[in-house]
Design a protein that fits this description.
The structure holds two protein chains of two kinds. By secondary structure, chain A is α/β, with parallel strands linked by helices. Chain A contains nine helices and twelve strands. In chain A, the strands form three sheets. A six-stranded mixed sheet of chain A has the order 4-5-6-1-7-8, sandwiched between helices. The longest helix of chain A has 16 residues. Chain B is α/β, with parallel strands linked by helices. Chain B has two domains: 98 residues, 3-Layer(aba) Sandwich (D-Maltodextrin-Binding Protein, domain 2), CATH 3.40.190; 259 residues, no CATH class. Chain B has 16 helices and six strands. In chain B, the strands form two sheets. Chain B has a four-stranded mixed sheet with strand order 2-1-3-4, with helices on one face. A two-stranded antiparallel sheet of chain B has the order 5-6. The interface between A and B is medium-sized, with 29 and 22 residues.
């Protein structure tokens, strides 16, 4: 398996449970050693020194429960090689940014789960890593805080960080990622730009809302039909025609069209079809 | 990478700042001094005076039992049955009954009646008195005069001198050596247990809270483990040093207060003679203790104590850390704790044997094996141990530590990231053999 992760992208690492995502991440962060192969960061082979340029937010969050927020962040930052004064400055500004300023002297035990998650996020990004690996970064956040974190992630990308994003929440992949890779049973199934992949999995289906009645013919096939709240018929139509206008023309001649939209497969659908297909082989 | 310094500092500071540490550090010396003070106080005060009646039908021991501070002897003349009633009613603490002895070669039926079981010391002392008296009577009857008997009496107190190989003579006091040895050995045993377990719990905490995943990308597993082991060693060392300093300060304050009180008591009673006696009684044991302590090579003993204290802790805590890394909770740790604690308990259990022959071959080997040497060697050091033995034992302990930390680090690096696996010795062996 080989993966290219473009710089300054948000790279979605997808795969079913037990596919090997965490193992891959652990190899990248040198927590475990690979049996074979190399990890190369910005043209350099990964070393213990280089691994400090990575920020890793593991899925299973961990902080010292009895340690104070400030001390804890300071300790973790200094382990990454930051000077005390610089680390203190950055921690203060981050705590302020995430509305945690008053919590410097509180122990992690006293924090709610969401707050602890924020602290963990800060610990991951404090040393301004070139590569940020986030494993399920939104779990445990309410929608408001999830949004705050999402914006911070986007801002970090603006500043030049590359982000590997591992999650099961397809809507955030849809929203954030420019590149995705799907792995299953430690094999890469697909990888590339999100748009390219979606393009590839386009299968010429359209969602049409109309009044009147349609039947399948040589130009198109009616996959399913439904009645909407407004009393319209909503159908999924699959066509072999390459031009959507051709399809539209032939539909207009038969029924009154209220909406016509191409169904681009969601990452979720691609995920499910690919993983299922893989399992059936 | 000075990561390890940061880790040591964190392990040290978080523990030293804990309330429980501060309380223990200040409370324990108070307790030590308090308990010793109480013992000394009770010891100096002595038990209550016991009233003992003597019914001597033989008439041989009319002047034998003389009242003193501990016992008041009253000779009575009543029949045995009514005398026994006194014991039953509890008006007296004991009754010595001597029947008319016909055959001095075989004195029978001498009895001591007491409510409840009398102390062994009291019975022994009564026995000894009667035996001596019968012996004297027999000697007198065989024709010796009282003067000759008095002339026979001699008082011997053995003055034991430790003749070292260099030929210099040292006073040795084996009782002090035993005391110092026991205290030192037990302290080391306790510290290994307390701080070893702390080390293990620290590793389990890092493992179960998954913080290790965050840290491990910036720190090598070995550094993380070593930092914890050394940080906790520093905590133990701090506590020990504080205990020694505080205990000696408190003890000297206590002694001053004690003697000041004796002085004020002297002014109050105005019974100068008697007070001088009591004061002498207080000062004498102190002098004894001081001279006994001086008979031991203090710098050597203290140096050895610090070395074995640290060495023993380091050796065992590496193993405790390995256990911590392998399990998911304190409860799972029990099965692996057991084999680790066996040599430690064996060392403590063997102290009695070592004490009987501090320079025997059993003691020698126990103080060479790194797993038992910290405890056993500390028992032997106050008795004087040849320097080469001490040196060899220390080198072996250092070697033992390097071995256990190597063993532990191989298990730790894998175990710390493993969750939910059922761990047994086979699994541990597999982790150990795993290539890096």
């Amino acid at each position: 398996m080989s993966l290219d992760i473009p710089e300054k992208s948000i790279f979605g690492l997808l795969g079913p449970n037990g596919a090997g995502k965490t193992t891959l991440i652990r190899i990248i962060t040198m927590i475990i050693e690979q049996d074979e192969g190399n990890v190369i960061l910005k043209g350099e082979k990964m070393t213990t020194e280089l691994v400090r340029r990575i920020g890793y937010l593991p899925e299973e969050r961990g902080l010292y429960k009895k340690m104070k927020v400030g001390e804890q962040l300071l300790y973790l930052a200094r382990l990454k090689g930051l000077e005390r004064s610089e680390a203190t400055k950055r921690i203060k500004s981050w705590l302020e940014k995430l509305q945690l300023s008053d919590w410097w002297n509180k122990t992690i035990e006293d924090l709610s789960k969401g707050m602890a998650q924020k602290v963990q996020f800060i610990a991951t990004v404090l040393h301004e890593p070139d590569l940020l690996i986030l494993d399920e970064p939104f779990s445990g956040f309410d929608p408001v805080n999830a949004d705050i974190i999402k914006n911070e992630i986007l801002e970090l990308r603006e500043k030049g960080a590359t982000i590997i994003f591992s999650t099961h929440r397809m809507e955030s992949v849809e929203e954030l990622c420019d590149h995705i890779a799907l792995i299953d049973q430690s094999q890469k199934i697909l990888d590339g730009k999100k748009l390219d992949i979606k393009e590839k999995y386009r299968d010429g289906t359209f969602l049409v809302e109309y009044t009147g009645s349609l039947t399948s013919n040589s130009a198109y096939e009616l996959l399913s039909s439904d009645t909407t709240e407004r009393g319209l018929t909503s159908s999924i139509v699959k066509t072999s025609l390459s031009d959507p206008n051709e399809l539209l023309k032939s539909l207009i001649s038969k029924v009154e069209i209220h909406s016509f939209v191409e169904r681009v497969p969601s990452v979720n659908e691609i995920f499910i079809s690919q993983v299922k297909g893989g399992n059936h082989e | 990478m000075n990561n390890i310094g940061l880790i040591i500092a964190r392990e040290y500071l978080t523990r030293v700042k804990k309330k429980s540490f501060i309380i223990m550090t200040f409370l324990a010396p108070l307790l030590f001094v308090g308990i010793f003070g109480l013992i000394a106080y009770l010891g100096s005060k002595g038990g209550e005076t016991k009233n003992i009646e003597v019914l001597d039908e033989s008439g041989l021991f009319a002047e034998l039992f003389v009242s003193d501070d501990d016992e008041t002897y009253i000779y009575i003349d009543t029949p045995l049955d009514s005398a026994k009633k006194h014991v039953e009613q509890g008006t007296i603490d004991g009754l010595i009954y001597v029947p008319s002895l016909n055959d001095l070669d075989n004195p029978e039926d001498i009895s001591f009646y007491a409510p409840g079981n009398p102390s062994l010391n009291l019975v022994r002392s009564i026995e000894r008195k009667i035996e001596n008296e019968i012996e004297s009577i027999k000697l007198l009857r065989s024709g010796l005069t009282q003067e000759m008997l008095d002339g026979l009496e001699s008082n011997v107190s053995i003055h034991s001198i430790n003749l070292s190989s260099s030929g210099e003579e040292k006073d040795s006091s084996s009782r002090t050596a035993t005391g110092v040895g026991y205290v030192a050995a037990f302290m080391i045993y306790m510290f290994i247990f307390i701080y070893g377990a702390q080390c293990m719990r620290g590793v389990i905490e890092e493992k179960t809270s998954r913080i290790v995943e965050v840290i491990i990308s910036s720190v090598r597993p070995f550094n993380l483990m070593m930092g914890k082991v050394l940080g906790i060693a520093a905590v133990g060392f701090t506590q020990l040093a504080m205990w020694i300093v505080l205990t000696s300060v408190l003890a000297s304050v206590g002694i001053n207060v004690f003697s000041a009180r004796a002085e004020s008591a002297q002014q109050m009673t105005d019974a100068i003679e008697q007070s001088a006696e009591t004061q002498g009684a207080i000062e004498n044991p102190m002098d004894n203790i001081m001279s006994a302590v001086n008979s031991i090579n203090i710098p050597l003993t203290l140096g050895a104590f610090v070395f074995y204290f640290l060495g023993g802790y380091l050796l065992y805590s590496a193993l405790f850390a390995a256990v911590g890394s392998a399990v998911d909770s304190d409860a799972d740790a029990q099965q692996f704790m057991f084999p680790i604690t066996i040599p430690l308990i064996a060392a403590i259990a063997s102290l009695g044997v070592v004490l009987m022959e501090p320079h025997g071959s059993f003691a020698f080997w126990m103080s060479m094996i790194p797993f038992t040497s910290p405890v056993v060697m500390m028992m032997r050091v106050p008795f004087g141990v040849p320097l080469w033995e001490l040196g060899l034992s220390m080198v072996l302990l250092v070697g033992g530590f390097i071995f256990t930390i190597w063993l532990a680090s191989r298990i730790y690096r894998i175990g710390i990231l493993m969750h939910g696996t059922k761990v047994n010795y086979k699994v541990l062996a597999k982790w150990f053999m795993m290539k890096n």
